[in-house]
Amino acid sequence: MYKPGYSRGVLLSVICTALLITLGCGGGEKNKESEETAHAGNESTSHGGHAPVSTHKSKKETIKGKRIGGQIRQDTTLSLQESPYILTRDLEILPDVKLAIEPGVVVKVAAYSGIIVRGNFHAIGEKDKPIKFTSLKKGSKWDGIQLKDESFDYDSEDLIEGFGCIIKYCEIENAVIGISCEKTSPVLSNNIIKNGEEGIKCYNEASPLITKNLIKDNLNGIVCIDFSSPEIKYNTVIGDEGKGIVCVNHSSPLIEYNTVFGAGSTWWSGIMCQNGAAPKIRHNNIYSNGGQNIKQVQKPGEESLAINAKNNWWGTDDEKIIANTIYDKNDRDNLGEVNYLPFVKTKIKDANHL
């Protein structure tokens, strides 16, 4: 339509120019589609396929793998054939549902995401083909494997064919808490758990079997709180900053045939007990923990109980040296006494994860 103030010649020129631009670009919808494709070029699809590849050069790292997340509502297996898996949000196993993971599978987990188990969880690797759980990006921490109250207790001495939650021959690294157990009794066996804030955490009356694991370079190796009573047997707990095993708030774990070793660091305590904790500590190698092999702690209003720690090896057969590595009633009157006599004079061969 002609508008006052423009000559007809100028108007025709503007119209022609607009037509040429439209023909050259191929249409607005096509441009929009190309732009969306370019943005998707650095991600894989949620069903494990490959997203369109952008020709635009990007400095972002391309992460390959099948993307998973959300709720699992039916029995599911993560197969080695489709590994690695990329977990970009929480993966939740609903009650009465089983998630099984095949040996050799790799699961990479984004920061602030984790695996929440309210049903049955079988992560059973092999000695030479472990399952690996790690952070998606270098330097980040993920939320670990969380076994909730609703998850299935393990109900058999058979660590392969039994029913219930079991994590065996897995490598778990860079997690805030590698494995947490809330009022449940899974089997945690033959795993390597490293480079996290807490290796294993038991709380709210949890009673897992924790056996034959190598737990190293975590701020705290194993944490037992709030009336939890795990069996901690045949593990190696190593670190240089923090604590090997923490027993707090009326927890009463059985701690036997383990090695708790701190490489001599003054920032590392072997076993710490606080507020009504009553662990049974026997037949362990507990040594070179510069911040005390066993340390009793009490805050105002808390209870400090006597600890049975007989028949352990303390890295020496000198009773005075052993006494100096234990912080208890002999150091502060309001602390419970650690009963370490008699003690073993030589290293206990079988007290480790091997």
Question: Low-confidence parts lasting 5 or more residues at pLDDT below 50?
Answer: 1-59
SS content category? mainly beta
User: How much of the sequence is in beta strands?
Assistant: 25-35%
Integer tally of domains:
2
Q: What shape does the CA trace take?
A: elongated
Q: What would the average pLDDT be, to the nearest integer?
A: 85
Helices, strands, pairings?
Blueprint lengths: L7 H18 L2 H13 L25 E7 L3 E3 L6 E9 L4 E4 L4 E4 L5 E3 L2 E5 L6 E5 L9 E3 L18 E3 L1 E4 L3 E6 L4 E3 L2 E3 L3 E6 L5 E3 L2 E3 L3 E5 L6 E3 L2 E3 L3 E7 L5 E3 L2 E3 L6 E7 L5 E3 L2 E3 L6 E4 L9 E2 L10 H6 L1 E2 L10 E2 L15
Parallel strand pairs: 1-3, 2-4, 3-5, 3-6, 4-7, 5-8, 6-9, 7-10, 8-11, 9-12, 10-13, 11-14, 12-15, 13-16, 14-17, 15-18, 16-19, 17-20, 18-21, 19-22, 20-23, 21-24, 22-25, 23-26, 24-27, 27-29, 28-30
Commentary on this structure:
The chain is mostly beta strands and 354 residues long. The chain folds into two domains: 63-196; 210-354. It has helices spanning 8-25, 28-40, 319-324; strands at residues 66-72, 76-78, 85-93, 98-101, 106-109, 115-117, 120-124, 131-135, 145-147, 166-168, 170-173, 177-182, 187-189, 192-194, 198-203, 209-211, 214-216, 220-224, 231-233, 236-238, 242-248, 254-256, 259-261, 268-274, 280-282, 285-287, 294-297, 307-308, 326-327, 338-339. The protein has a 19-stranded parallel β-sheet that branches. The longest helix is centred in the N-terminal third of the chain and has 18 residues, at 8-25. Mean pLDDT is 85; it is low at 1-59.
